[in-house]
Amino acid sequence: MKYMKSSDRDLNVISINLNTDPLTPPAIALDQRNGVYVEGETVTLTCTTSGEHRGKIYFYEEQRLLTFVQLLTKDNTGQFSVTNRHQGKHYQCKYGIYAKARWLESQLSEAVAITVTAPLPPPVISLDKSTGVYARDETVIVVCRSNSGQKDRVQFYRENKLLKRRQIFIKGNIGMFTINRSNQGGQYQCKYRTIVQMRRLWSHLSEPMTVIVAHSPKPRLSLDSRHAERGSQVTFNCTSPSETPGFLFYLFKQGETHYSDVRSAHAGSNTASFTKMNVEHNDAGNYTCVYKTEGKGRMLTSELSDTVRLIVGSGEE
User: What domains lie within the chain, and their CATH numbers?
Assistant: First the structure.
């Protein structure tokens, strides 16, 4: 629209241009769409203008202008670090441009809300065996506990590597796996995930717990005479390896559910002897033995020895 004024004597025209349209308010957006940030994270605000405007961008917190001390700006973005929950407020932006030598500013954008939450406390991991010592074929039960309310998901790690589903069975906050390899020993940790206003947040890893895989090698079983006559005596000797000396030894006959005999090791040795007096035909068969040893606070049972066969002859009547 033009306003024109003419004098009576001349045709000089004073023209005032009021045809400049109001600036379209910009749109503001957060890098976290849900607006949830953890203390210590960086917030990135983006102020998008319509058209090809190349003016100056201003950011506001609760309609108060943020200064360069409070906000790092570059082009149409602003960044600041979240240090406390008091920064959980409403943020807006606007822009200004020169139009035909006149400085114009837009209205403030719609507001976006920021929610600030404290970092999730790390969980506490525990093992079903306080010593952390497990033997082959034993099941390890790992529990990941936290006091931060509902947990959406739990993950377990060994030596800082995520354990996959084929490596550990997880139900709720409990993980279970069976020891079948020596490399399953090591430091175990866990972490959990929870949801805050549609944002999935992970805790830090727990302090580690150490799993020790104890290996008790099989003993050696020998027989003073594999061919015995009925009514005679035979002696079995069960010897544990020197690196894992046994203190209690068990003799088994294959096909029987209970051990045949139990003996302590000879003083100053890692061998126990089992003597059968007056052997009978029903004593014939295959025999094996195991030993018990103490390792890192636990009593452990060895693997079964190789079998030896006792043959009983008729003897003299």
Answer: 2-117 (2.60.40.10), 124-214 (2.60.40.10), 220-313 (2.60.40.10)
